Structure formats: structure tokens, C-alpha cells
Amino acid sequence: MSFFQPLAQQPADALLALIGMFRNDPRPGKIDLGVGVFRDDAGHTPVMRAVKAAERKLWESQDSKSYLGPEGNVAFARHMARLALGDVDLGGRLTGVQTPGGTGALRLGAELIAASRPGVTVWVGTPTWPNHPPILAAAGLKAQSYKHFDPASQTLTFDSVMDALNRAQAGDVALLHGCCHNPTGADFSLEQWRVIADTLSSRGILPFLDLAYQGLGLGMEQDAAGVRMVMDACPEAVLAYSCDKNFGVYRDRVGALFVQTGSAADTDRVSSNMLALARANWSMPPDHGGAVIATLMDDAALVADWTLELNTMRDRLLGIRAALAAHGGVLGRVDQQRGMFSLLPLSPDVVKRLREDHAVYMAGSGRINVAGLSVETAGRFAAALNACL
Ligand code: PLP
């Protein structure tokens, strides 16, 4: 028997297969709502202007590529702590490290949680980002699911969220999307965040916050408001941050993990464990993306231009959402949802007919990336949808 005989074949990534099918489709006007990246009206995922300028600046000034430490670029982590949490600094009760993307931050956070409380239960609303469950499982954590969203009515099921948080035991963990919920776009209102923050705090549940789309929902401050409320209410919290979407640096893999602890002494111990886990996983994070974003954040003119471009991206998503919702039916509540994704109540057969008969490509789950549309093509998509329902 070969050494690797016991390995079961793993399923291919369905979204990657969709990319290939889309590329090979000769029909003009084909629409790709599959892959989860931002696109402009021309269907392009651009390098943001300020990122390009910061890369140029870094190229001119960088005089060494010698190793950093497992914490990565400390200036970058400081900047991201401030972007996410406002007027804070690392030190005291807050520690943070650079990670390979939000995925790396989630994995490191999950391993830190597991190292402290082996086998602890993590409460996860469904549907969720498909990579959440395997990341938790890989760290040896037990996921307990509950309903976050009802596709048929296109509504967030807040009662079932609260029911779950009230069933959780003290010392359990709650994984929550900070904004622009993937795949549903169904975010908590500020009032709902208030109730969640108070419940987590009074019941002693550790928040594990995933903020991967700050600035792509309603605005930089609004999109972080829930996360900040929870971190104010709870003495201890874990925050996984991704810069890959709001700086458009996906393949550079840029993220950070922040942990808020109960005391400076705890911070020391937690921080030493984060560094040890990072070292065992990736030694140190890839430098380029973090160094570029730190360079950008140190330059007020570049920050202003990045903000401007991010605002344009967000306005584009909001405009497409309004155009879709105007068609009513299953699209009627898309303007109540935020970020790049919505989850439409479509059967696999409808998804297949949209692809075969109308050249509209989307995930089998019915998730659409609204950035794959434009205000102009929204009508064509709505018509195709109507023809298939
Ligand atoms: N969290 C959520 C909810 C996401 O949707 C994603 C990416 O799609 C991530 C985290 C991880 O992002 P990345 O690892 O690309 O930074």
C-alpha cells in the first residue's frame, strides 16, 4: 500500500471550477457573480491607487529584506488596531500581530483559544463563510451551529441568535462577523449589537470577532461599531482582521490578530503564546502587504486617496443593491444587506438554468457577489432570474 493510500479524495473548490467555466463561455454579456472579490464597472479587480503609490514608495526606500519576527510589521499592526478599534494602542490590555490574511488571523486565534481551553465550544451562526468550520476543526475546536439567516424571507433571525447565546455556557466562544456578513450580507443593527454585547459580557462568553470587510458596508466607522461595542463591553475578546478586501491586496495575504485581555499580565502571557503559535505555523507573516499598508497609513495624502477610492467602491455596491432591490421579488431586500454578498433563495436547478440559459454564473448555494454586476446589468440579471423562477 502506498504511504498516502489512506487519504480520501477531497472535493475540488466549486468556485474555482466556476471560474474556468465562466472563462470558457463564449457568450457576450456573460455575468460572473461567483468569486468573492470586488470588481469595478469593467469587471476588473484593480490595484488601488494609494496601494500602488505606497508600493512605489516602499520599493524606493526599502533597503533590506532581512527577517522580521513572528509578530511581523509592528507599525502595520498598530495602524490596523487604530483603524478597527479607534483611539487605541497596542500594549496594556491589547496585543496584536500581523498574520497571513484574515484566514491566518482566524487560524491563529482558533489555536490560541484551543491552547487555553482545549475542545471548547464555538457558537457559529449559519450560513457562514465556508472556511470557518474547517479552520475551527483544524484547531481542535468544537463548532455548535445556530440559524443566523432565513434565505426564504431574506431576514436575519435575531431570535435564534439570542437563543443560542443564551444557551451557551460561560467560557464558550461566539464567532461573529463584524460587518458585511459572508454569505448573506445580513448584519446586526446597532441595537442588536448592544444586546449581543451585553449578553456576551453578562454570560461570560468570549467574543471571537471576524472583521474582513471594514469600509465596504456603510463606512469605516459604522462597519466597526458593533466590534467596538463588544470589545468595550467584554473584558476579553479576540479579533481577526483582514485588509485583503478594503485595501484590495487579496493575494498579498494581509491581516492581523488582536487579543484584548483582562490585565497587562495576561497580555504578556497571551502575546508570548501568539508568537509561539505563529512561529510553529508560518514563522513570520509575508512582509510585503503589511509593509505597503504601513507605508500608506504613514502618509496622510495616501490615506486620503485610499479613503476616496474605498468610498467609491462602497457606493458602487450600494448603488447596485438599490438597483437590484427595485426589481422586488427575491431581490426586494438586497438593499437592506451590506457588503459584497447576498444569499438568494434559489434551488440548484435555478442556479444551473441561470448558467446554461442566461450565462449568469453563481455559487450553487445561491450566493451572489453584487460587485459582479453594475447598475446597467442589474436589470438583465433580474430578468434572467424571473425567467428561471
Ligand atoms: N472572514 C470572512 C468572513 C471572509 O469572507 C474572508 C474571505 O473571504 C476572510 C475572513 C479571510 O480573508 P483573507 O484570508 O483573504 O484575508
Automatic annotation (TrEMBL):
It comes from Niveispirillum lacus. InterPro entries: Aminotransferase_I/II_large, Asp_trans, PyrdxlP-dep_Trfase, PyrdxlP-dep_Trfase_major, PyrdxlP-dep_Trfase_small. Homodimer. This is Aromatic amino acid aminotransferase. One of its GO terms (biological process) is L-phenylalanine biosynthetic process from chorismate via phenylpyruvate. Its cofactor is pyridoxal 5'-phosphate. Residues 29-385 form the Aminotransferase class I/classII large domain. Signal peptide: none annotated. The lineage of its organism: Bacteria, Pseudomonadati, Pseudomonadota, Alphaproteobacteria, Rhodospirillales. NCBIfam families: PRK09257.1.
